[in-house]
Design brief:
Shape: globular
Distance between the termini: 25 Å
Strand content: 5-15%
Largest sheet: 8 strands, mixed
Number of strands: 8
Number of helices: 6
Length: about 260
């Protein structure tokens, strides 16, 4: 965003962990977005209550039901977002929803692999595709020059575990084969999006949030959610053409594919 106002942002998987903290940070900014869309599978369920409690304090927060692996759900959420925006585009899409079940080379089954790919790769692809018209509208309407999250951007929440070059450093400690493979595929999707949407002025970047103390990351992780999101917010503020089509860490460092 680099000092630019981000008019609207959408975060998937926003009912817990990094997604929820991102929503809180956007809402708490001195110049918050006009609209913050927070999506989750079941807004009315127990896991959606903390998110729902924020709506009483922040009228700019809109909660959308969205199951990223269900095309009908994704399309319905995109239509609701379009109605809320009232002719404006969407500036920032953060594909955060993901899963990391235990999985080794010995235990992996075809169902294990396909289920994780469906959530971690197909989901972000479907969401990006559905919200692309709104991202294009924001990019074309913006007076900003160059690429930024304040103009139009797709941020795919990835991981260093998806880096093929870095795999030898952590494989035996954290094998999670299906997760690693799905995130490597997500990195490729990010690169493809960066090529396909460049002329539209849409920034496309993959972000490694660090090893974070969440349900997915476990209590053994290095970072608290707050520490990770502090870094991610700083990174988002400073993304430009230099990070278009690359994988960066929560500290802004470029990682190899």
């Amino acid at each position: 965003m680099a000092g630019h106002q981000c008019g609207s942002v959408l975060v998937t998987g926003a009912n817990r962990g990094i997604g929820l903290e991102l929503v809180k940070r956007f809402l708490g900014k001195p110049n918050p977005p006009k609209t913050v869309f927070a999506t989750c599978r079941d807004p009315e369920g127990a896991r959606g209550q903390e998110l729902k409690s924020l709506t009483s304090k922040h009228p700019n927060l809109k909660i959308l039901q969205l199951e990223t692996t269900d095309p009908a759900s994704v399309e319905a959420a995109a239509k609701k977002a379009e109605a809320h925006l009232g002719g404006s585009g969407l500036n920032l899409l953060i594909n955060n929803a993901g899963i990391m079940p235990p999985c080794t080379l010995e235990s992996a089954t075809s169902k294990d692999m396909l289920d994780v790919y469906n959530t971690n790769l197909v989901g972000p692809m479907l969401v990006s595709k559905a919200f692309l018209p709104l991202l294009k509208k924001a990019a074309h309407a913006s007076q900003q020059k160059g690429m930024s999250c304040g103009r139009a951007a797709i941020i795919n929440m990835s991981t260093i575990l998806g880096s093929i070059e870095k795999t030898p450093e952590s494989y035996f400690f954290i094998p999670v084969v299906s997760y690693r493979c799905s995130k490597t595929a997500l990195n490729m999707l990010t690169k493809c999006q960066s090529m396909g949407y460049k002329e539209e002025g849409i920034l496309c970047t993959a972000v490694h949030p660090g090893w974070v103390k969440t349900e997915l990351g476990s209590d053994q992780a290095d970072l608290t959610v707050e520490e990770s999101v502090n870094g991610i917010m700083n990174v988002l503020c400073n993304l430009s053409e230099k990070q278009h089509g690359v994988l960066v860490t929560w500290e802004g460092k470029v990682l190899p594919w």
